[in-house]
From TrEMBL:
EC number: 1.1.1.8
InterPro entries reported in the protein's UniProt record: 6-PGluconate_DH-like_C_sf, 6PGD_dom2, G3P_DH_NAD-dep, G3P_DH_NAD-dep_C, G3P_DH_NAD-dep_euk, G3P_DH_NAD-dep_N, NAD(P)-bd_dom_sf
Name under which the protein is recorded: Glycerol-3-phosphate dehydrogenase [NAD(+)]
Top-rank EC class of the record's enzyme: oxidoreductase
PANTHER family recorded: GLYCEROL-3-PHOSPHATE DEHYDROGENASE (PTHR11728), GLYCEROL-3-PHOSPHATE DEHYDROGENASE [NAD(+)]-RELATED (PTHR11728:SF8)
Every Glycerol-3-phosphate dehydrogenase NAD-dependent C-terminal domain range: 200-221
An annotated GO cellular component: cytosol
GO biological process: carbohydrate metabolic process; glycerol-3-phosphate catabolic process
Catalytic activity: sn-glycerol 3-phosphate + NAD(+) = dihydroxyacetone phosphate + NADH + H(+)
Domain of life: Eukaryota
Native source species: Aegilops tauschii subsp. strangulata (Goatgrass)
Entry's Gene Ontology molecular function annotations: glycerol-3-phosphate dehydrogenase (NAD+) activity; NAD binding; protein homodimerization activity
Protein family: Belongs to the NAD-dependent glycerol-3-phosphate dehydrogenase family.
Amino acid sequence: MENGHAGKHRVAVIGSGNWGSVASRLLASNTAKLPSFHDEVRMWVFEETLPTGEKLSESINQAHENCKYLPGIKLGTNVIADPDLESAVKDADMLVFVTPHQFVEGICKKLVGKLRPGVEAISLIKGMEVKMEGPCMISKLITDTLGINCCVLMGANIANEIAVEKFSEATIGYREDKEAANRWAKLFTTPYFLVAIVEDIEGVELCGTLKNVVAIAAGFCMQ
Ligand SMILES: NC(=O)c1ccc[n+]([C@@H]2O[C@H](COP(=O)([O-])OP(=O)(O)OC[C@H]3O[C@@H](n4cnc5c(N)ncnc54)[C@H](O)[C@@H]3O)[C@@H](O)[C@H]2O)c1
């Protein structure tokens, strides 16, 4: 994979909710240490105005904390919030998708023709797009719309637990490109977040997505 930045990969995170903020924190702790990655993690923020009148992206860059979706946790000074989608992704060769699933298609359409050649993606999104023709997995939606390789990372993960460095595990699903999957695993793994890889995108993505359906059903049964 050519990255064209003096040999360093550049990471952008598309999404800055609860899991997007925690993922950015996790990634930034690694990019600051690993020589093959540029320190900075650009995090696209769906801009909101806080009750104080301040913009969410400005607040994140000033306090290094997402006071709305992850209060009380420092993200790292190398996480840079950017409310402009195009600017957030323009230099990246590694893209992390982590928005609620219903926004992905619209985001991907805005990104067509705006990405660097050879960019790799990973989806942390649980859910699927249900169309007239049938259900479509989010990784497929990303690959089909943008023409890029897209791995998935799923686990029984609670963002707030990972934010306070409680031990968790996740699995990366990939198709054919094991090198890309290993690069993602290196980028996400920390002593408290263990990541395995498996050559089965659909299996990993469906397990991640359907476990939430089972969890809701189990919750109803306990009422
Ligand atoms: N939170 C978790 O513990 C967790 C764990 C694993 C996986 N996930 C998955 O991660 C994904 C993101 O979940 P989350 O918990 O970070 O979400 P969240 O509910 O915390 O955040 C919602 C995000 O959507 C943004 N948003 C609102 N309107 C928008 C629009 N029109 N366009 C684009 N963005 C908009 C908000 O600004 C916010 O950043 C989901 O697919 C979820 O299943 C979450």
